[in-house]
Amino acid sequence: MLQEAAFTEAKAKAKSISGAELMLEALEKENVEVIFGYPGGAVLPIYDKIYDSKILHVLPRHEQGGIHAAEGYARISGKPGVVIATSGPGATNVVTGLTDAMMDSLPLVVFTGQVATGVIGTDAFQEADILGITTPITKYNYQVRNIEDIPRIVKEAFYIASSGRPGPVVIDIPKDIAATITDTPAEQEMDLPGYQPTVEPNYLQIRKLTEAISRAKKPVLLAGAGILHAKASGLLKEYAEQQQLPVVHTLLGLGGFPAEHPLFLGLAGMHGCYTANMALYECDLLVNIGARFDDRLTGNLQHFAPNAMIAHVDIDPAEIGKNIPTQIPVVADAGEALSQLVKQNGKQPEHSEWMERLDGWKKEYPYFYDEEAPSLKPQKVMELLYKKTNGEAIVVTDVGQHQMWAAQYYKFSNADRWVTSGGLGTMGFGLPASIGAQLADPSACVIAVVGDGGFQMSTQELAVIKELNLPIKIAVFNNMALGMVRQWQEIFYDSRYSHSKIPVQPSFVKLADAYDIKGYVINNNEEAEKILDEVLNNNEPVLLDFRIEPNENVYPMIAPGKGIHEMVGVKK
Amino acid sequence: MKRIITLSVRNRPGVLNRITNLFSKRNYNIESISVGPTELEGVSRITCVVLVDNDRIIEQITKQLNKQIDVLKVADISEQSVVARELALIKVMAPPQARNEINSLIEPFRASVIDIGKDSMIIQITGETEKVEAFIELVKPYGIKELARTGTTAFPRGTQRTNSSKTYSIV
User: Fold this and answer.
1) Is the domain of B62 the same as that of B114?
2) CB atoms B13 and A135 under 8 Å
3) Whether the predicted pLDDT of A133 surpasses 60
4) Of the candidates A25, A79, A90, A92, which has an alpha carbon nearest to the alpha carbon of residue A52?
5) SS3 of A152, please?
6) How many C-alpha atoms does A531 have within 13 Å on its Cβ side?
7) How confident is the model at residue A572 (pLDDT cuts 50, 70, 90)?
């Protein structure tokens, strides 16, 4: 009798399970909270199982919106964003988001459906070679060939996506494999002999760096998004204070160091502030932690930190020396490197002269705009948003002028409050990314700062905001133009505004109304004050159509090809 | 300058695509690439000959290759003492009256004739690229009908004369 019971128990344990169920079980094991997915033919077997799944499934209104939402989720939560798209067009619609995540090192696990194994390669209905298409824009990709590999592949995908330098991983699942039923397969270990990210820094390099800092007269610390991925903003502050190092941020690094801290110089790069850029130009020691010397940061490489010794801490060895010759390379996780550096407790540099100089610049060259102007200035709007949220909101942006104003005027006091498309500069990113950001932190005040151009690339996602009743505040910086394009045409193309001014614009308030979302048109400072007070703390989505000064430009600016010290528009 | 890079890679679907993609994405110029299985099951060896302008580029190439998840090992063996070989098959016009003459060229190059037709023959030659190229130049005047080359495959020698091997990985 007993034996028989044990036998049936064992049999029940080795239960039959489908590929789709194996996939969802694996997702549960990874503690996935939310899937951004869009069904279709090749993923029907998966969606049949999602019907019974406990994991929250969000239906974007376009796959591109889904993957950008997953990026926003990943940036705020620090966990991989999960996406499902069907084969063919569903899969090709996530290509932009994959590239964006690859450029900005965001962890994603993206499942794409594929036609049945028997017809792969026959140009079957909705077939696309998604492995071929996504190879250059993913950290890694898989096509599932055997159903029993699914649990291992999912485990590996999450590990690859979130470890080392994070990035997107695609798993392509043919329809028949998702539908096949099999006995629960034996557990397989991860099998990645060629993947061992270096996390611990080399001790000798840490010593070298510590000595270089103690000898420096004009040191500066450049902090990139590597600080955020490593969750090392606390250590960064501790280290900067211990060594009294001035800190500048890259666009993507914002929030890693408190903006109101006396050691903070500001944003560096094409639209960065005078002090940060001049500090990079004149320093004698540049310590880069977790940034990749992107061209929008460095300007013309010949004029970038020309007299400085360069130290570069990066988890990706291929970034070190890629653009800038580096004297002190440190391959490591930013957090591990910082904690080792703090432990060294090296001698502070003797740099009082330098610090005074920097403070002088800070006072003399702050960001500026015409505060007395009668029109609604975008910088003023950003300042208001900053003040009225005490610098604690999650700010998600699209790409263009408004993005730069947000980066300049919103002074982040905390890490992981800033979501923007940096490397790829993807218009249409902001609105869907704000959905993911809000889902990652439901109690946070999320502001989606978007331009009128980029907003119209993903307005369909308003439906998701309404459906989930996410209290996102959508601030449309409406200048009836593709502002950054217009600015470049004004400056570099003799004001020949070729297709940058949008002649016909819908009423965004009516559009919001169509989705049953409240909307307001805001024409001047008084309205801005009043309406922001009214809506910022309510618990529902709101669209704010800020009619900003249409001819406003972003300054300071480093023209393409110019050095980091050749900024224009630095002073009133 | 010419550089020889050897890679051990896991033999997974799409791995060659990932490697060649990386070269085109980063705008590196491959002169030849050869792939084949190794003594280990599931591991392939890729030998790339690349043309680069300076050491920084080759450093970037090796780092980018190293970063690939299916790549187990990367080595730039250009500075080492290596044995490098490639194989070429040359179908050359060879009417009966020219055959003796061609044969006399074949011998010093240690090439061999592997097929003879009515008025052509196929010659097989193995060796370093320079030797193969010299031989091709020599037989060109007879008229080359078809030519196929494998690209270089290479090993460091068992004994290195001096320890001059350059390593590019940092730390």
Assistant:
1) no
2) no
3) yes
4) A25
5) helix
6) 20
7) confident
CB–CB of A318 and B170 under 8 A? Answer: no
Q: Residue ranges of the domains in chain A?
A: 16-183, 203-364, 378-555
Q: State residue A7's pLDDT score.
A: 58
Contact A136 B25 (CB under 8 A): yes
Summarised one tens digit per residue, pLDDT across range A521-569 is 999 999 999 999 999 989 999 999 999 999 999 999 999 999 999 999 9
Nearest beta carbon to residue A317 from set B14, B25, B170: B170
CATH topology of domain A378-555: Rossmann fold (3.40.50)
Residues of A in contact with B21 (CB under 8 A): 135-136
Residue A143, SS3? strand
* pLDDT tens by residue, B124-146: 999 999 999 999 999 999 999 99
Cβ contact A84:A170 at 8 Å: no
CA-nearest residue to A131 within chain B is B14
Q: What is the DSSP letter of A553?
A: -
Cβ atoms of residues A153 and A142 within 8 Å: yes
The secondary element (H helix, E strand) that includes residue A450 is strand A446-451
Q: Which residues in chain A have their CB less than 8 angstroms from residue B68's CB? A: 194
Task: Tell whether B160 is covered by a domain.
Answer: no
A457 flagged as catalytic: no
> Given a cut of 80, is residue A242 above it in pLDDT?
yes
Which CATH fold topology does A16-183 show? Answer: Rossmann fold (3.40.50)
Q: Is residue A408 among the annotated active site residues?
A: no
Containing domain of residue B138, as a range? 83-154
Residues B61 and B89 in one domain: no
Give the tokens for residue A433: 């990314």
| Gap between the Cα atoms of A111 and A94, Å rounded | 10
CATH 3.40.50.150 given to domain A203-364: no
Give the list of residues 6+ apart from residue B37 with CB closer than 8 angstroms, or none. B11, B43, B44, B45
The number of folded domains in chain B is 2
Taking only the tens place, the pLDDT of each residue in A352-375 is: 999 999 999 999 999 999 999 999
